[in-house]
Amino acid sequence: MKVKGGIRKILVTGKSGQVGWELRRSLSTLGQVTAVGSNELDLAYADAIRGFIRQLKPDIIVNPAAYTAVDKAESEADLAMAVNAIAPGVLAEEARRLGALLVHYSTDYVFDGSKREPYVEDDQPNPINVYGASKLAGEQAIRNAGANHLILRTSWVYGARGKNFLLTMQRLGRERDELGVVNDQTGAPTWSRAIAECTAQMLAQLYVPGGSADLPARLSGTYHLTAQEQTTWYGFVNEAVACGLLAGRDKPPVIKPINTAEYPTPAARPMYSVMSNAKLFDTFGIQLPCWQQSLSMVLEELRSDCH
């Protein structure tokens, strides 16, 4: 890829989302970052996407934007499909026209959760909800477009800002004396900043000065990108409370383990969605920290924000 003036143009979608917010910072040393939100680029409209990409002509498109309301997707399937399935395909088609690379984020929810050992990239997807189906369709659209791409499947994303499970538990934990938390779904809580930093490291390796120009094509594909080790939502909350999530409250709430059946939701969730990161490590030499280590850093950030 030839870059005019030596400065690579990077487009980041979903600039206000958990991962998008972090990407704006982690990618800033790799090129000129243009970050957009839904006000500037609404991914529900394919023609708008094409027009925007053709005007900007980015060298790298990084797409963390998504329809992520898992339960709401059951009743808004068309919108979920537009943003999560059609839009990534359009981005990939435009990336191919430009000779650009597309980095796209997918999810553990493409799997049905019936496995009892970590999923690998080649395992057969079988989503059990609309959200997972829309994300899988997005993956397939990208592959079909033939662009150089990195599809990065992650899971249970959280951080110190945005809408996520950790911050919801912090809010509810200050309001209630008892919290019932699901203890029979197993996964890997993954910090949004770790995802962004890992992405930056991967891109730095693909475009190392003097490196092989065909690296983006040779390493194009799907990679699992999650924190090390696994837990349940209940285990995650217990660890967070033990590490000071609700510091300042005189008496912390009782954390009660419950089964999925006791907390029915419109969308089914996979009971086991741990993913192996071996391919990521073997290819790029990158490994995210264990979830406990990342959680500790997020809680440190939350405490500093309070002072």
How would you describe this protein?
The chain is of the alpha/beta class and 307 residues long. 39% of the residues lie in helices and 16% in strands. It is built from ten helices and twelve strands. The strands form four sheets. Strands 2-1-3-4-5-10 form a six-stranded parallel beta sheet, sandwiched between helices. The protein has a two-stranded parallel ribbon with strand order 6-9. The chain has a two-stranded parallel sheet with strand order 7-12. The longest helix is centred in the N-terminal third of the chain and has 22 residues, at 77-98.
Going across the biggest sheet, name each strand in turn: 2-1-3-4-5-10
Largest sheet: 6 strands, parallel
Give the proportion of residues in helices: 25-40%
Oligomer: single chain
Q: In total, how many beta strands?
A: 12
Per CATH, the class of the domain at 4-158 and 190-227 and 274-289 reads: Alpha Beta
Tell me, briefly, the overall form.
Answer: globular
Number of helices: 10
**Percent of sequence in beta strands:** 15-25%
Classify the secondary structure makeup into a structural class: alpha/beta
H/E element order: EHEHEHEHEEHEEEHHEEHEHH
Mean pLDDT across the residues is: 95
Instruction: Report the CATH architecture of the domain at 4-158 and 190-227 and 274-289.
Output: 3-Layer(aba) Sandwich
Alpha carbon gap, first and last residue? 46 Å
Cα-atom radius of gyration: 19 Å
So, the CATH homologous superfamily of the domain at 4-158 and 190-227 and 274-289? NAD(P)-binding Rossmann-like Domain
Which stretches of 5+ consecutive residues score pLDDT under 50? none
CATH topology-level fold name of the domain at 4-158 and 190-227 and 274-289:
Rossmann fold
